[in-house]
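Quick start: load a record and inspect it. Here is Hexosyltransferase:
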Amino acid sequence: MNFIENNMEVATAVQQSDQGEVLEAQVVANFPPRPDAVVTLLHQDDFLPGVQTMLYSFRKKFSFHQTYPPEVVVLVTPNVDLEKATNILMPALCTRVMTVEEWWPPSQSIDSQLMKGFGKSNKRVLDNHNPGWTKLRIFGLQQYETILYIDSDCLVLKDVSHLLDLNKVYTESEALVAAAPDVLPPSNFNSGVMVIRPSTQVFQTLQKNAEHLTTFDGSDTGYLNAYYPTWFTDFPPDARLSAGYNAQTELYERTKDPKTGESSFWDAQLSHDLHIIHYSEPIKPWQTESSDETNSLHTLWKSWYQKSKNFLLRDKKERAKQEKERLAKKQKLEQEAAAAREAAAKDPKRAHKLVTKRYKELRAQGMSTHDAMQQARHEILPNDSSQPDAGSQVAAMFGMQ
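Running the structure step on this input writes:
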């Protein structure tokens, strides 16, 4: 893609963003990183349905009102089938897929020494349900000013676009801008949903201190709470999101009625402010039998998953239709150009008219005079070396020769 074509697409994309449309991944890939990004992590193939459903729900609920809407980025670890993930997620659901190396918890740490003292092994492990240490790499993505991170096992039910504005009024230098409380203890925050200000300095400090800070649960949530021990007491009020922005299903399970399977606490305390459901229990909705309808939250997730599959199917068909139309248009143009060349070979005056007509079309599309003339002559008279060069032709058209 040349400079003119790139800028034409940029202009079109900016116009689309003003109309609240999601930008195409192929266009965004030619941009420098946007100021804001919404990021999630895909750490194994089994979590692809979770990422797909979360991104679809986000796309349906997010208000793309910004002049430059956020990029939607999926971080992918090396053990994931990158081609499969990219084919499913781009460009329908995200604008970038970025590969990142796994961040393994340190084998030698204060925690491991403490556990040995109790006759237990180090709790810091990276498994299917504890990939969070790799998540901490978002703090090093300093190409973005603000990142809204959402775990892949979440479901977005309300617009969360305003969370990206928190960083605009936040004056502290720390990278963590906002998070919601954990289930236990609520004075800690859960890392499933976070607004951060990426910082290379903070990221390097996180890496450096990994061996020296304890983590109450062995995961990234515990480690981040050790790194930000005063989140609840000293951070500004905007840094403490309400529980509805990271409503963990673990809380639902703890408070539900064993007979009805429903949680009156959840309904009374969270339903009115339910922005994001976090399926934080070990067994994820896509890992249960499809006929299992005993869990209303799992049923809700599965309904969104089906919607996401329907959306991707429609999107695939529409893109195939557009590609077919593009190829047909290209073929038609090639046929017209061939006919024009044949006619031009027989009639030099007609050749001049065809070149002039094509030149004006290209100029109307924003191409420079020099490039437009070169392109027009290449299309109409590709093998004609007897004609003057493009610069002379343009000069002649404007009476400068």
